[in-house]
């Protein structure tokens, strides 16, 4: 099949095309959030779902239990609360989101969350340093909203969750506000915490 790699997997060209489309769509969403937020969140979720349904790399499977990352209660919820998603879009999003996660529940088992915690100010500086074209328009206020969503869900546990399996999933919070890219000792400390967390799941 055209555009596919071995055993029907996407080719590098196809993956590159998807990445390009996602980048363009992200830029469109930031420019016109009320127009493109639902489209972006749909595409983003489906892309993540496809990745999570793929077999884990052998190296990752060497861990006692692999850690998977789950998204719904941050970006989409924030877009609804700031008015970028309408009531009907939010309702439809939640409906098919819940259906798909329940349908593939056996393949999407969650064991734990690793929350890389940094202040919105630090995140903004790192965005500027990363210098992605589609992220140029991101403002501090938006990052503060996302930070609040992360804190409410993963730290304060005040976010209303719709899946019982999420209620008691352990969370490892790592403070990464300080730049540790050149600090080997700090890197090793963080990795020890991750290793201990994964082994105890």
């Amino acid at each position: 099949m055209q555009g596919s790699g071995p055993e029907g997997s996407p080719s590098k060209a196809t993956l590159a095309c998807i990445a390009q489309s996602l980048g363009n769509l992200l830029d469109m969403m930031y420019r016109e959030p009320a127009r493109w937020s639902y489209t972006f969140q749909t595409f983003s979720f489906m892309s993540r779902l496809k990745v999570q349904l793929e077999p884990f790399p052998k190296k990752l499977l060497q861990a006692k239990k692999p850690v998977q990352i789950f998204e719904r209660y941050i970006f989409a919820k924030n877009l609804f609360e700031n008015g970028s998603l309408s009531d009907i879009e939010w309702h439809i999003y939640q409906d098919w989101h819940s259906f798909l996660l329940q349908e593939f529940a056996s393949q999407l088992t969650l064991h734990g969350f690793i929350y890389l915690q940094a202040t919105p100010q630090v995140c903004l500086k790192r965005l500027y340093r990363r210098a992605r074209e589609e992220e140029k328009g991101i403002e501090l206020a938006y990052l503060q909203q996302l930070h609040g969503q992360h804190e409410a869900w993963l730290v304060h546990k005040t976010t209303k969750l719709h899946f019982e399996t999420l209620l008691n999933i352990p969370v490892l919070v790592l403070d990464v506000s300080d730049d540790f890219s050149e600090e080997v000792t700090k890197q090793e400390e963080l990795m020890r915490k991750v290793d201990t967390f994964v082994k105890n799941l």
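Confidence is low (pLDDT under 50) at residues 1-12, 59-69. Strands lie at 113-117, 171-175.
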